[in-house]
Structures are given as C-alpha cells and as structure tokens.
Amino acid sequence: MKDLLREAKRILDGRKKALRDLALRLHAHPELALEEVRACSWQVKLLRKWKFRVKSPYGGLKTAYRADCGRGRPVLAFMAEYDALPGLGHGCGHNLIAAAGAGAGYVLSRLLESRGVKGTVTVMGTPGEEGAGGKGIMIRNGALKGVDAAMMCHPNDRSEPDTGNSSVERFAVTFKGRAAHAADPEDGCNALDAVNLLYSGVSAWRQQLPESARVHGVITEGGVKPNIIPESAACRFYLRSPDDRFVRRMVTRFRDIVRGAALMTGTKPEIEPLGVPTRGRKPSSLLGEAWMENARLAGLKVVVPRRPVRGSSDFGNVSHVVPAIHPYFGISARPIPGHSHPFTRAAGSKLGLENMFRMTVALALTGFRFMADEGFRKAVVAEFRRRKRTS
After folding, report:
1. Could you tell me what percent of the chain has a pLDDT over 90?
2. In sequence order, which residues have a C-beta less than 8 Å from that of residue 64 and are 6 or more positions away?
3. What is the pTM (predicted TM-score) of this model?
4. Is pLDDT above 80 for 309?
C-alpha cells in the first residue's frame, strides 16, 4: 500500500498546477445551475489533453460531459460538480469538487496502466446540483448505464465519511387573485394573503414534524405597489427528510396546506415541482471503510459525525443505482456554515486546495482497490444488492 500511495502522490504532483488553476478559475468565474458553459468547456479541454475520450453534451444536459480512459469492465465513475450559488459564487465549493474529480480520474487511470489492471475510469461532469437535480435528469437519460460504482467528494469544515443525507422535493407555488385599488379592496382578491397564510401554515406544521425533517421557503413575488391588491404572488419551498417515504407524506400535507390557503383567500393555486426529486443518499459501507483508511494515509484528519448530513444532494439518486460514496474534506480550520460567504472564501483558500489534493489521492486509492481487487468488488456489489432488496 505504501508503494501505491507514493506512486499516486507522484502522479498527482505532475498535475497539481493544472488542477489548482482549474479550481481557482472556476472559483473566480462562478456560473449558476445548468448555465455552466465555461466550467464545462474548461474541464473538457483539460481531460482531452490528458487523453480521456470525452462526450459533451451528455445525459440530456448541455453542460454535462463524460470522459473515459481505459477499456472494458469494471467501470468506475468519479463525479464532478461545478455550479455556483446566486449571490455567493462557490459558497458550496463545487470548484474544488470538479478539480478533485478530474484529478482522481487521472491518477487512477495512470495507476491502472502502470499496474496492468483492466477497466475504465470515468470522470462524469454533472451540472445543476443546486436545485435542478442534474444527476437525476442524467440518470433518466441513461448516463449510468454500464457504470459499476461511483464516487465523488464534497468540501466541508471537517473531513468526514459519507453517512448519508436527506431526500428533498422542491416546489414553486403561485397564487392567482384579482387586482384592485387598495383603497377599494372589496373588488380585489389578494394573492399575497394566500402566500402569507401558506407560510404561516407551514410554520405551524413544523411543530408536528420529526426532528430530522425540514421545511423551508422564500417568497419570490409579493406584488407591485402597496396601493394595488396583488393579483399574483409566488413562493418556493423545499421539503426534506432522511426517509424517502416520509418525504412523500410531507408532499401530501404540503399540498393540503396550499389548497387551504387558496380556499381562505379565494385565490387559485398553481403547484409546480422544481427539478427532479432528490433521494436520500445510501452510501456503500465497504467503499466508505476503504476510503477512511486511504484518507488517513493521504493525510486527512477524518472525524466520524454523530448523525447524517441534513442537507441534500442529487448524488443520492446515484446511490440508488450503483454502489456509491460521497465523503467530505475539510477546507477550514474552524466551523463555518455551508452556503455562506465564509465558505466561498474557504473554497479558494490554501487549506482548501491542500486538502482537495489529499482527497484526490484518497479517492484514487479507493478506486484502485475497487478496480484491482475482485473479491472486494464482488463484496461491494453484493452489499448493494442486499440493500436494494430490503429498501
């Protein structure tokens, strides 16, 4: 293992500048979900330079790609994300995810070549994680056909294994009322009142939800002027739970609250799902244990969290199709919230880049074991199939 670790680090050393430049370039030029034109092109250009066979667009999305190196089975995919957040830029650190995915793919491809191990290493660019459910769309379009396992990583304020996360369903709600002069309101039908009642109904509902469930929303349209009764008002809500089945129950209750708000105000509601529903992530315990060992060898200080992550990722959909893990690497010396300006700064920091490289090595070594150790690979697949039968 020490020889393999040294070789992985040596291979990575020759590509660190390119990966650092990619991460910082993405950080300096953030693009929103499904608009990642430059981010996609920069990665495609780099992977083609490294002799990967690239298809783009891919999986039904214009800013997605698939880059392959090697031939035949098994096929292991490292997934890259690269969309940013409005107003925050890379406040979720997807610039580091993209560079780590490309780096892990390159390092593993060279390890397999030097050791004479057969198989295909894939780097898959998956746009639109932030709210669009890009991976779910790509899965529906056959993006994972022929893939045997998948891995990716995510920045955090601590380095942690994948312990799962929450399902989420997202909705845009619009109420249609009737405009009138606010000085003569009896002729109007106030759509903003409906939004406020929906928000109040959700707030009252939260008391009856289990501690692990979350509902959060924002008002996106509230009217034009104070002296005009709003004829249209809109909001967006996300519903989360670690249990896919409980999320479906939450959706039913949420729709009932929407209808209640409409009935109380005489408005007409429109409920539109946003993106593809994101499923709760079910990580492979065997891949996770292998990653833990390799992460410590690579120099990451791994801490096991007390509970699963409450946020959501469309990588959860991947974990229901193939064995998969989504571990975390620390980019800050102190606790910082995700989706924040401090996180954006950390995603371009020296520590963030250093631990991104450590994570790159850990992923490549974990991928090598899956590709080269047939007994381990069969155990990973068997574990996945058992879970599928019982879930």
Report:
1. 90
2. 40, 56, 57, 58, 124, 125, 126, 127, 134, 138, 143
3. 0.87
4. no
